[in-house]
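Hello,

I think I submitted the magnesium ion job twice by accident. Can you confirm which output corresponds to this input? Input:
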Amino acid sequence: MDTIRIEDAKNYVDQEVRLGAWLRNKRGSGKMQFLQLRDGTAFFQGVVSKEAVGEEIFAKAKALTQETSMYLIGTIREDERSPFGYEMQVKDLTVVGESDGYPITPKEHGTDFLMDHRHLYLRHIQPFAVLRIRNTIIAATYEFFNKEGFVKIDSPILTGSAPEGTTELFHTEYFDTDAYMSQTGQLYAEAGAMAFGRVFTFGPTFRAEKSKTRRHLTEFWMIEPEMAWMTQDDSLEVQERYIAYLIQAVLDRNQYELDLLGRDKELLQSYTQLPYPRVSYDDAIKLLQENEFDVEWGVDFGSPEETFLANHFAKPVFITNFPKEIKAFYMKRHPDRDDVVISADLLAPEGYGEIIGGSERDTDYDYLEQRIKEQGLDLKEYSWYLDLRKYGSVPHSGFGLGLERAVTWITGEEHIREAIPFPRTMNRLWP
Ligand code: 4AD
Ligand code: MG
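Support: Only one job matched these inputs. Its output is below.
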C-alpha cells in the first residue's frame, strides 16, 4: 500500500492508500463522520461510515478534536461535489498527536488574534494558499534569472551604510562599532555586475518605516537584479518580462490556491500582456491634477495617487524619471535635465501601488561623491562603492522587486502581512 499526500489523490482513485493528516474540522451523525483533513498539500474529506469501520474505529473518529494528527488508511474516491474532486473512504485511523483546546476555532477571529497565533494560523486555508503562491514566485524568480544568464550574489545583511536614506535604519552594535541591517543589496549587486555582468540578490531587507500601512513591513524580502551594459530602457523590458513570467508561473501551478482565495484568474492573465505603459512623472502629475488631485511637481506619490495611476491604465504601469530630490543618490542624471533622474517605479493595479523601484546608475565618480555628500551620507562608508566608478565603469541598470508586495498583489490579499510567514511590522515582533 502506498503512503500518499493529498495532492496525489487523483492518481490513486479506487486504490487503498495510507495518509498522514491533521483534522481541521468535522461534522456528522451517529452513523457517518465527515473529517475535514489537511496535510500541507491540499484539503479534502475523509468519510467514516460506522457500517464500514465498526463501532471501535467509528468511536475514535467521532472523538477526534481539531488539529489532531493521524494516519488514515482508506480508498480514494472521486467526489464531484467538492472543489478538490476527491475524498477518502476511511477504513482505519490511528491518532499520532492529540490536540487539546486548539485556539483557532472555526468561528471568526480578529486579525490581531490570528497574527498572535501566526505559528498555528499558517495551517489554515488562506495562509496556505498565499504562502504556496509565494513559494512559486520564489522558484520562478530563480528560473527566470537563471535562464537569462544571471548569477545570484548574496549581499550582506550587516552593513555600515544607508543607501536608501538614513531615517529608516535599524541600528545594532557590532563589537566596538555600529552596524545597520541592510536596506538594500543593490550596492553589492553593482559590484557583482562589474564582476559577473548580470547578477541578482535575493534576501531580507530592513526598513525602520514608521508607517502602519497595508504595504509596509519592517523586514521584507527583495529581489534585486543588476545588469552591466544595460540602459534603463533595457531594464524596463527585463522587468516587465519578469513580472509576466511570475504571473504565468502562478497561473500554471497554483490554480487550486487561486481558487481557494477566489482570485480573478482572467484579470491576472491580462497582466501577462506586454508591454506595460511607460508614463513620465511629469505626465503623471498632469494626469493627477486633471483628476482633482492636489499634487505639485516634486512630491512623492502616496497611496491614493499610485492607486489612481495604475487603475487608470488597468495594468501595471511604469512611472519614469522621478524628481532627483526624492530619489536615492546613485540614480543616473537625465542627459538634458537637472531636476529628474533616469528611474522608474512599477505600480501594480487594483490599489497595490509600487512593487518595483529601479534606475540606471550614474557612472561618474565626482557626481556620485557630490550626491553622497548632499544626501548627508558618510563618504567613508561609500569609498568601496566609488571604486566601481574608478576601475572600468560601464553603463548599468537595476531594480528591486519587493517580494511581499508582489505576493500581496498576485494573491489579491488586503494586507502585506499575509504575504510573509512571520510578518514584522512597527508593532509586531512576535511570534
Ligand atoms: O524603491 P526601493 O526603496 O528601491 C531600492 O531599495 C533599490 N535599491 C532597488 C534597486 O534598484 N535595486 O525598494 C524596492 C521595492 C519597492 O518597490 C517595494 O516593492 C519594496 O521594495 N519595499 C517594501 N516592501 C515592503 N515593506 C517596505 N517597507 C518596503 N519598502 C520597499
Ligand atoms: Mg521606491
